[in-house]
Amino acid sequence: MIERQLQPLLHELVGVVHAPTSALGDATGQIRPTGVQGVFHADARVLSCAEVRVDERELEGLTHGDDGPHGARFVGLARWLGDPTPDPTVRVERHRRATRNGLTEELRIVSTATVGVRATVTVDLGCDLAPIEAVKSGGATTALEAKTGQPGLLTWSAAGITVTVSAPGAEVLATAERATAPRLTWPVDLPPGGETVLSWTLTVEDPRAVVVGPAGDPEWSRPEVTADDRRLVRLLNRSLDDLRGLRLAETGAPTDVFLAAGVPWFLTLFGRDSLWAARMMLPLGTDLAAGTLRVLARRQGTRVDPATGEAPGKILHELRRHEFTVPGNGLRLPPAYYGTVDATMLWVNLLHDAWRWGLPAEQIEPLLPHLEAALSWLGEHADPDGDGLVEYIDTTGHGLSNQGWKDSGDAVRFHDGTLATAPIVLAEVQGYAHEAAVNGAALLDAFGRPGADRWREHAAGLARRFRDRFWVDGRYGPKPALALDRDKRPVDSLTSNIGHLLGTGLLDRDEEAQVARLLTTDTLAGGFGLRTMATDDAGFSPLSYHCGSIWTHDTAIVLAGLARTGHREAALGLAEGLLSAAEAFDYRMPELYGGDDRALLHRPVPYPAACRPQAWAAAGAVLLLQAATGLYPDVPGGTVRLAPLAGPELGGLHVDGLRVGDASVTVTVDQSGEATVTGLPTPLTPLTPLTPTIPTQRRPTTPAPH
Fold first, then answer.
1. For the Mannosylglycerate hydrolase MGH1-like glycoside hydrolase domain, which residue ranges apply (predicted)?
2. Is the pTM of this model over 0.90?
């Protein structure tokens, strides 16, 4: 039997992060030389082992918990030491904290014994400087030899990276068989009831890294929230801590901050992820959006290059220091890779939404040439066959075969499970394109630029083509197909993608109502959130990456779309799913989790390789908060709409510290759903909430025959 090379599992590991540094270890605090455990800096593993022992014995793990936005604390027992009683009298607290350029650990040995305690504490270390893609593939790596010099000091160097460990007061063993497995040793002699603290520090010098950790505090506000449903408060607080740890800047531009995609695989700039996360964070301020927009504008495409996927006006997909190669599956991505079909439209939509939330004109105006370039890409390069729809295909044979947010190779499937053949025309991408055309036109008009009418006409034509080509019959009435394949056949599975169409303007109100009905069927909404594929599609599997699992950000985006378009009951159902999942995951939401029915275990099943924390999963908490408050500002238009999701079902809510323009805003929603807002910048006028009438007919349109 051929042994498979498998991606390491993540779901039981404990992580800390202060981008671009992250660390993953087991629940006892050990970082073992196996799987994906280790300390990572940007896209390299800078420490592959950090195992603590006392008298050559491992501690018995007791518990662990968070310690601020970048730290974790582990408690273990040394029951062979101290008093010979049933109660343990010697414990070791291991406090780990990530820094922008490394990591610190403190070992606090505490005795409550009535006798003195003597022991030897050791930390075994290892370093392989393996690239992140090698770790992800599950392949073997080679430990490097450590060098010693000054007392208590170890160094490793390779590929332009230098790793240093300093351990005050420790003896360093790093010769012979210990050259690749060096050891730090401290003797401990405690009086009765005594304690001591040992420490070691890891620092990384990485001048070739393409990302750095920015200085200073986060670019967003941290609102004070009280809520009848305390899960919302806990989720928001944990998520904001995680987002603080994911802040990054590009080397050479440390003031333009964006959010890294996620730990551990994607701790770098990802166009789609960083844009969505910044968009979700707009209720807390526009500075993060501005930094994200500028970073991606600087790398906007200028030429046609099939090898990288670059095209004039196109927005980057991901940035690495070197080619990203995954052994065994043929994937080879260049350091700056543009293989994304949606990031360009998402860039336009973030610029527009930041403007609505109050991004100053002096920050928007320098980005207008990039806006025009992005719209030109939409009109000239996004539709290579000229049929008026946005499509993608990887022409290299070693790039991403799917280039929407569901980018795994098997993500686009027909109802019978058959894989669709590229070029692929994704449903939600047409929604993003319609929204970008309308939003781009609004910005062009507002800033006196020509061309707005062209993009409004483009949007209208796209809506007509979508209505004609995408709607198909299904078990629950008509539905938008997931995609069109190479032959323009509708890919007729029922998926969460259709939820992204809400609020983009691509659908009329009857069509939005039918989509809302589809999203509330048990086949999609029967888990702890929104399944990516319906259970009665042949491709469904609850632990499929994109064909049956539940993604936190996906559920949050669709929930927000339902709330914004007035489909309250459907939005509340997804909100309850997310909050229940958050409780099960200790409020640190993973990238995705299983799409099993709620009745299976009465808690979500982890997806074993999910990133955690992840930017757009954590930012989904802010999007949920916005939907709960129902705050929808239009600063240039001088209005604010209030349409809260909070109220009788979700409970009352008070939020102090939302940001609209340069003002700190307070929103209160009582248990009846009555909302008030104070602190708005003048002359914004609150509008009466709009409750759309939901049509009773099931068929929004008569689809064209296929």
1. 337-583
2. yes
- Supply the pLDDT for residue 3: 62
The per-type count for the chain, helices as H runs and strands as E runs, is: 14, 37
Structural domains of the chain in order of their starting residue, each with its CATH number: 14-207 (2.70.98.40), 212-660 (1.50.10.10)
Backbone angles phi, psi at 685, to 5 degrees: -115, 120
Asked if omega into 20 is within 30° of 0 (cis), the reply is: yes
Please tell me whether residue 460 adopts helix, strand or coil conformation. helix
Give the three-state DSSP class for 596: coil
pLDDT tens digit sequence for 201-255:
999 999 999 999 999 999 999 999 999 999 999 999 999 999 999 999 999 999 9
What average pLDDT score do residues 256-268 get? 96
What mean pLDDT is predicted for residues 144-155?
A: 94
Q: What is the DSSP code (8-state) at residue 484?
A: E
With bands split at pLDDT 50, 70 and 90, how would you rate the model's confidence at 689? low
Contact 604, 612 (CB under 8 A): no
Query: Hey, what's the torsion of the CAs at 236, 239, 243, 246, to 10 degrees?
Result: 180
Q: Any idea of the CA torsion for 18, 21, 27, 32, to the nearest 10 degrees? A: -170
Amino acid residing at 508: D
Cis status of the peptide bond prior to 613, with omega within 30 of 0: yes
Distance CA 436, CA 456 (A): 10
Closest to 92 in 3D by CA, of 10, 198, 1, 178: 198
DSSP string, 255-322: EEEEE--BTTTB-S-BHHHHHHHHHHTGGG-SHHHHHHHHHHHHT---S-BTTTTB-TTPPP-EE-SS
Instruction: Give dist(CA 280, CA 658) in Å, integer.
Output: 13
Amino acid identity of 619? A
- C-alpha–C-alpha distance, residues 482 and 210, integer Å: 36
